[in-house]
Amino acid sequence: MEITTELIKKLRDESGVSVMLCRKALEESKGDLEKAKVILQRKGADAAAKRSDRMLGAGAVASYIHHGGTVGVLVELSSETDFVSGNESFQVLARDIAMHIAASRPEFIRREDVSQEALARAKEVLMKEVEGKPVEMQEKILEGKLNSYFAERILLEQPFIKNPDQTIRTLVEGAIQKFGEKIEITRFSRFATGGRA
User: Fold this and answer.
1) Which pairing describes strands 163-167 and 58-65: parallel, antiparallel, or unpaired?
2) Which of 6-20, 39-53, 58-72 has the highest mean pLDDT?
3) d(CA 70, CA 194)
4) Does domain 5-51 have CATH number 1.10.8.10?
5) How far apart are CA 67 and CA 167, in angstroms?
6) How many CB atoms lie within 10 A of CB 144?
7) CATH T-level topology, domain 58-110+155-192
8) pLDDT at 96
9) β-strand partners of 72
């Protein structure tokens, strides 16, 4: 398939990645747009891994107040430099993440943030669900249930509300690839009125 300027532009508009990286992904996928998106996601994860040891020295705090003022979120999105954190696309990303947090109610940013107490409580409740299953399968079933339970509560593992085909982790990895800097969700607070948690 011929790789046209229109196809490159379409991939760039959808991914936010540079024209050169879009062209390379389309060449590698032989013009298949969906495969090119997967290639860019994979490269985004690689770029994030390469930058993981860099220092964060800048960032932005974004807020989102849900219509009616019943739910509000503050999120800190960090970057290496003011140049990136001052970019309008970075600000939009931070606000999108704040909106996602308001809608999806995560409790933790990453799996490493789950406390031993939270893990023990979840295990205690989910153990009752595996009772009666074959003994040799109980541990594996419990592990699957725990992974599923916490995936719903860990921000980076949640499907992004604006595009459920990608997680918050892949959204951030795409931004790392786009900006060429380490970007990380540092912290967030979610507030809700009247027990709307």
Assistant:
1) unpaired
2) 58-72
3) 8
4) yes
5) 24
6) 12
7) Tetrahydropterin Synthase; Chain A (3.30.479)
8) 97
9) 65, 191
β partners of residue 121: none
Q: What is the pLDDT of residues 9-26, one digit of tens each?
A: 887 777 767 777 888 888
| Amino acid type, 2 | E
**Residue that has been written with the tokens 């969906």 in this structure:** 34
Q: Is 162 exposed, middle or buried (0-12, 13-18, 19+ CB in 10 A)?
A: exposed
H or E stretch covering 52: none
Query: For residue range 117-171, what is the model confidence (pLDDT) as tens digits?
Result: 988 888 888 888 878 788 788 888 888 988 899 999 999 999 999 999 889 999 9
Neighbouring CB atoms inside 10 A of 135's CB total 7
**In the chain, where the domains are located:** 5-51, 58-110+155-192, 115-151
Predicted TM-score (pTM) of this structure = 0.71
**Alpha helix locations (H) across the chain?**
5-15, 19-28, 33-51, 82-85, 88-104, 116-130, 135-151, 168-179
